[in-house]
Amino acid sequence: MVDKELHKVMEHIDNLTEADAEKLTEELKQTRERDIERDLRNDCWENILKKDEDHASERLVEFIEAKHFIYTTRDDIKAEIWIYSDGIYKPNGESFIKEVVRKILLHAYTPQRANKIIAKIEADTYIDTDEFFGKSYLNEICVQNGILNLETRKLSPFTPKKIFFNKLPVTYNRDAVCKNIDRFFGGVLKDESDKMVLFELAGFCLYKDYFIEKAFMFIGDGRNGKSKTLSLFKNFLGVENTCAVRLSQMEPQSSAPCELHNRLVNLAGDLSNTSLKDTGMFKELVARDQVQVKRKYLRELKFTNYAKMI
């Protein structure tokens, strides 16, 4: 079917505009994918009817692993499946695999079959936790149009070979300016020269390294722009790259500090009246020390924090 459509396209290729050619190429790609999925579905159904569940599951495992880049952090308590999507790795691999299996098997889908495939993919893709989380690429960050080198300000294409967890919801434009933000900062800051401090703070948040070992605090009376400034940071960096762990939660026995892992910034809106009984954890998080934090239903996690404290 694809070959016939391709032959028709080739007959009229010289008359196609670039946009039409791209559209047809995408349509052919989707058609080929549907054909592959149909053939895989028929093969799996046939093997299930023959009571050859192992062969059916192996075919699905091969299909998923060939199309997607997957890592599973090695842990005997609870492994996490990370899958590459749009330039970064996300910890939703298990639900993604179930979705693919359901799409292929249709009425033959069962939770047991999906779990069997998940278990096989886990075993195929194990990686040590320290190795997986240890590749930070300190001077690079993903944006909507590629990987931005913060030192050279040059973009490079996305690649699954580089493990990133953060992606900004912005398209990088070296020449872009925003007069509205400049005007807003000028209106909420007491000193005009402090505008550059906020711009530098936003830039500091892009680095996956806490090389300025300081926390930052916005002060002032009510309705003076503090909350809007925090919202601006959140929108720039992306909600998924921020967290809101209160100062009073940064204690060794709390599981809240694990939220800082792989986040760019911690935006705590207001200081609570609850006192911080132990400042050790907070100091370690700001000072680039390795911390060990508790996680619910998971093994304790060791990491070096780079989420800036605001």
TrEMBL record:
Natural source organism: marine sediment metagenome
PANTHER family (alphabetical): ATP BINDING PROTEIN-RELATED (PTHR35372), SF3 HELICASE DOMAIN-CONTAINING PROTEIN (PTHR35372:SF2)
One annotated GO molecular function: hydrolase activity
Protein name in the entry: Bacteriophage/plasmid primase P4 C-terminal domain-containing protein
Residues covered by the Bacteriophage/plasmid primase P4 C-terminal domain: 66-190
Keyword Hydrolase: yes
Stored InterPro entries: NrS-1_pol-like_helicase, ORF904-like_C, P-loop_NTPase, Phage/plasmid_primase_P4_C
Keywords: Hydrolase
SMART domains: D5_N (SM00885)
